[in-house]
Amino acid sequence: MEKKRYERPAIIKHMGGLANKFGKSQGIRSKPEIDNIRVDDIVREFGSPVFIFSERTIRKNIRGAAMSFGARYPKVRFAWSYKTNYLDAVCGLFHDEGCWAEVVSEHEYDMALSNGVPGNRIIFNGPYKPEWSLVRAMKDGAQINIDHHDELMQIEAIARRNGGPAKAGLRINLDAGIHPCWDRFGFNLENGEAMDAARRIKTGGIVNLNGLHAHIGTFILDPSAYRAQAMKLASLAIAIEKELGFRIETIDIGGGFPSNSTLHEQYSPGEDSNPPIDAYAEVISSALLTAGFSPERLPTLVLETGRALIDSAGYLCASVVANKRLANGTRAVIIDAGVNTLFTSFWYRHNVYPVEEKNGMVEETVIYGPLCMNIDVIRPSLRLPSVYPGDLLVLHPVGAYNVTQWLQFIRMRPAVVMIGLDGQVAGIREPESVEYMKKMESVPSWIKRNGGAAK
Amino acid sequence: MNRKRYESLALSENGFLFDTETGFTYTLNETGRDILQDLIKGDGPQEIAGRLAEIYDVPAETALNDSTLFINYLKTINLVPQDEDNGTAGHE
Lengths: 455, 92
Description:
Chain A is of the alpha/beta class. Chain A contains 13 helices and 21 strands.
């Protein structure tokens, strides 16, 4: 007699009064393949956990965004946000699609140069730019967006030393009608600081103000905030042009568009409820087109979109390490990737897919990482079928911020691979080792290394 | 062992469980139902695991491990008596 398919025993208590208007989920989908490549084959070759990036999705995302904005506004420039993901292979794809580089530190600037981006296609942002990095950026012709008065004076001093005029943009902070209202970067619009900074630049006589930049926040789910931002920046640009005679060539609205990820506090899944990029393109483009610029002097719209372009292209495959029951009966699963690897677990409810199809009963489960730290929670609660040690899980979307904010903490950072358009799989970052980590350390001669032996 | 607790459990063939003592209801999957049915009948963990291994494509060791954990969980949620043998008796 043929035996029945085994499913781990499970029991679920019925909870009255906790109605969900979206209904109960009908089973959990599995994810055996990414771009037609078997996930278990990748794990066999590169180990677990492993980040997997899809070239196809990256190119699809940037082309889609470029089309969304390009169809609505004639002068659009994307600058790849290095801090979102500065793996060379990833940056290389965005540059291949025509993106400039947007960097916020001198080491990101170095990376952009080494990725073949000329200095005059780098946007240099951030509140701290060491003097030598400003000197270099000015020499290269990078677009520097000034964050504060001290930086403005520094740039003027460098320009005078160089004996020639410099160009720069101003970072602006403004009230776009959302909370929190970021005001720590740049010059405030509403209290007149921004206009005063422009006047100060005019008085200095050595810097040519050529752009305005603002970044209103992160994971902004309300497109109308961008309408307010674009309208305010456009009004400021027109006022500066009229009063001071500067030609504002670029209006840089920064980043902050959401991906299809789901914030912990979001009720419905991000992939169903987050606005598409078209919604943002529509309000930003229409705000600029109706702002009063003469058609021949329309500024270039600059977008520093990061998360919305890369998040969905990244997957993390991790292995189940163990199952356990917490004291209150909650089912827990431990996997081999922790919050040091998947930093965005603090913000997002990532989708979790078993690699192998699981048809069994799903049960409320908490997923822990492998760290010996109480905070190491990958998903505080999700409905998951029963899994066994060694089973593979795919977490998605994880392409943004994880491979820049990840930490070497208790466990090393894992390998990263990319699946190419033709299905080729290549490692794009090796897994770290103790040797790699300890290479930077040294032990002073007076410290005896006796391994804990008694004196 | 107090077997009276089992008298208040009404378990249907499709895995629906009504606990007449507390009024709570539950759904069990097929293997969970089999284990609870066997416990109600009075079988011990070794017999239960052996039967699971006969019916399902699962090694006896895995079946014993899973049924042990499952019986522990049933104890945690007070569906089976605390002194029910979960298969670890005699283990160091």
